[in-house]
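Revision sheet: C-alpha cells.
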Amino acid sequence: MNSNTSIDVNTSTAMPLQNQLLATKFFVPVASGKLILRPRLTALLQKSLEYPLTLVSASAGFGKTTLLSTWVGSLPANHPLVAWVSLDEDDNDPWLFWSYVLAALDRQQPGRFEPLLTYLQSQPSPPLKYLLRALLNLLMDNAEDLVLILDDYYLITEQQVDTTLSYLVEHLPAHLHIILATRADPPLPFPVLRARGQVLEVRTEQLRCTTQETGAFFHEVMGIQLPAETIQQITARMEGWLVGLQLLGLSLPERADPISLLQEASGDQRYILDYLTEQVLRLQSQEVQTFLLCTSILERFTASLCDAVMEQADSQQTLAWLGQANLFVVSLDSKREWYRYHRLFAQALRYHLEQMHADLVPALHYRASLWYAQHNQTTQAILHAFHAKAWQWAADLIERIPSLVSYSRAPSQSELILLRRWLEQLPASIVQSRPRLCLVSAQMLWAVGQPAMIQAWLDAAEATLTATLTRQRQENGSDLVLEVQQNQENLLGEVIGWRAALQAFEQDSQSVLSQCQRAFSLLSADNFYSRALVAFAQLLAYYYGTNDAMAAIHCGLQTSSLGHSAGNLAHAISNKALTALYMIGAGQLHKAEQVIQEAIHQGSQLKELVLPETGYPALFQAEILRERNQLDVALSVAHEAMTLYQQAETIMSPVFLFYGYGVLLRIALSRGELDAACSALGQIEQMGRSMNQASYLLLRSVFTTVDQVRLWLACGELDRATRWAQELERGERLGTPFEHERQEVACVRILLANKQPDLALQRLEPVLQRGMAGQRWSHVIEMRLLQALAHKMCLQVPQALSALREAVRLAEPQGSIRSFVDEGPPMAALLSRLRQEQEKGGSNSYVDTVLGAFPEQNKTDKQQSKGAGKPTKAQPLLDPLTEREREVLQLVAQSISNQEIARELVITIDTVKRHVSHIFSKLGVQNRVQVIRQAQELGLLDEEC
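Predicted:
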C-alpha cells in the first residue's frame, strides 16, 4: 500500500483519495531513446477494442509494457480514453486495488467516479460486490469507449482481487475494454471467455522479435551494422528476447563479436541477464556505475529523491544522460520527472549492489525513507525503513498514520492489513515501548489471540503511559506540554477502555465498571470514538455481569449515539443492532423493532451502495420474525443479511458472523430442519476454534449453549447431551454469571428429557430469580415454560398452569409465539388446558393464536372442522418428532424400504437410517411393526395410512 492512501471521509481535514494515491502509477510509461517500429503488434493490439478482455502474457523482458505504451501513443487523441495503472505488490489489498482502478478511470472522466471513491473510503471498508455493481451501472450510463490497462498484473496474488476482477470482466458493457499485461496467466475464467470469443490473447510467440526486427534494432537503435547471418544467429540464440537484445547491444565493445559474447553467456535467460548486466556496468564510468547501483533500491525515482539517496545534487543531469544512452530507464510522465528502471535490469543491479556494497544498502534505504517522510508518503517511507532495519524510525512513521492518531475513526480494512504486516515485522521490544502500537496489537488480536498475550500488550501500554503522565504532571505546564498530556490521557483512556471491554467477557463486572469510570475521566469530551468503546464495555458488564438489562440497553443507545457523533455511520448502525439484541433479551420486541428499522434506514441513506453493517440489524429483525412465527420471511431476511455481511472484513466481523449463524440455527430448529441446524452449529464451532476462549464462551452463551442442547435432543442424541452436562459439572465453570445461567437452563432441558423434573425445578429456581432481577423477560418466559413442563411431569397441574399463566402474561404484549411452540406437544396440551380454564371468563385470542401455531393443534382443528369428533388415544411425546421424521414415519407405515424412502425424499440412505433410528427412540420401539402400532395409537399417522 502506498503512503498517501490513508482513507478518511469522516473528518473535515481528509484529502480526496485521488490526491493521496501515487500519481506516477497512472502515467503511461514513455520509453527513453529510439524504438523499433513493430506495426504487426500494434495492429494486433488494435483488435483489443473488439474484445472485453485482452491478455498480454509473456515472461520478463519481451516488451509488454513498451508495446502497450507505444500502442497507446499511436491512438487518436481521447479515442478511446485510456486509463493506465502500473501495479505493484501492495495492490494485493483489494480495496487499494479498486481505489487505483476507480481513480484511473476518474482521471479520464473527471468527477464521474468520485462518488464510488468516496464510498470506498467509508469506515469500515464496504463490500466490493456492491461497489462493482454500482460501477457497472455507472459505466452503462455512458457509451464512450474506455480502455483500462493493468500493467504487471502478475504481481497480484490475492484471490479476492482476481475474483472481483473476474466479476467485472463477465459483466462488462461493450464500450469498456480491459487489457492485462502479465508474466503469468491469472486465475480468471479464460476457458469460458475463449468459448464465448470474449478474450484476445497476445503471447510470447507474437512478442518475440523477428529476424527483421532484430536487424532493425541493432542498425537503427544501437547503430551497429551486423551481417544477416549474424542477425539470424542472434535471433535464434536470444529467441527474440527483447531485453536480451538491448543488453547485448550495450555490452558490445567496439568491433567485438556478439556471437562470441553470447557463447560466454551460456545458460538460461536469468544467467544471460546477470552476465550482460555486468558487461554493461563495466562499460560505464565509475560515477554512472555508482548511480545505477545506489538508485536500484528505488521502485520509482525522481531527481530530488536520487539526490537524497546519493547525497549529491546533479541527479537530473545523470537521469537525462541515462535516457539518451537507452540504459533501461523508463519515463513515467510526459514531463520526464519520474522514472523507473526496467524491472529485470533493476533486479540485476540490486544483485550486484548486494555483492559489491552490502554494507551500504541499509544507509541507502534510510536516506530514501527520510525523503519519502518529508514528502508525506508515509507508506513508502515505512517500507524503506524496514529495509534499512531502522526499527525505531519505522515505529515513529507507523504512529504517524492518521487513523492511529485521530480519535474520530478506526483504521480502514486496508490499513489494518498493512498494520498487521508491519507490527509482525517490528521487534517486540520496539512495540512494547510504544503505547499506541501496543494498543493496536491488542485490538487486532482481541477475537483470535490468547487473553494473556492481549493483556500483556495492554499492560505494556498502560505502564508506559502512566510513567509518562506522572513525569509530565511534575513539569511546568506550558500549552504544548498540556496538549501532549491531553493526548496521552486520551490514549490511556482508550487503553483502559479496551481492557474493560475484554474483561467484560469474563467474570469481574464491578472491576470493569470501575475501569470504565476511570477511562471516561481521562477521555476528552470530543473523543466520541473512544467514549463509545467504553460505553460498549459498560453494556457488556451490565448485561452479562451485574445483571441489569435496562442499564445495558441505555449504554447501547449511548454507544450508538457516540458513534453517530464521531461521524462513523457503520459504528452507529452496528451498535443499534447490538442494542436491539439486548432489547429482545429484555422482552422488548416492539422497541427492538423500532431500533432495527432506524438502523436499516440509516444504512439505506447511501442509496444503492448498501453498508454491510445493515446486515447486522437485519439479523435480529429475522430473530423477531422467527419469534412471531413468520419462519419463511425470517429465513429469507437472515440469508440476505448474512450474504450482505459476509462481504465485510472488520475487527467485529467474527462477532457479527457468530450471531448470524446463531440466528440461522434457531430458525432451522423452529422449522424442524435439523440438517440446516447442524450446518449452522458446525459453522459456529469452526469459528470457535480460532477465537480466544473468553470471547467464544460469551458469544456462545447468547445463542448456542441452549440451542445446541435443543438440537441434540431433537436429533435423538440424549446420551450426548447428558455427557455434556456431566462434563460441565466436573469441570471448572468459566465465564460470566450470564454464561452460567444459560448453562443451567440447558441442563434443565436435559433433566426434563431424562424425566427428572424435581431436580429440574430445583435448578431452575435460582436462575429464574436472577432473570427476573435483571428484567430479562424473554429468558424469564423460557424458564417459566420449562417450569410449567416440569410441574406437569410431576403431575402438579395447578403449579404448571400458574407458571404458564405468568409466561403468557409476559409474552402477550410482545406477540411472542415460538417460545411456546418450540416446546412441542406437551406445551400445546398445557395451553389447551389453560384455554379451557380461561373460557369460563371469556376467550383469550392470544392463547388461541399461539395454539393455532402448533402443527399438531392445526391438524386437530382440521379434524374437528370435518366433524371427526371421534376421541383419540394420542398422547403428546416429550421429545416430539420433527417434520422430516414425520415424513419418514408416513412412508415407513406404507412398508416402503429405506432405499425407496431416500429416493422419494431426495436424501441419502444413511440419513434415512438416522431418521428411522430417532423415530424408534422417541416412540420407544424396536422394529417397524411396533413403530406403526405405536404411531397409530398416538395418532401420528395420516388418515390414509
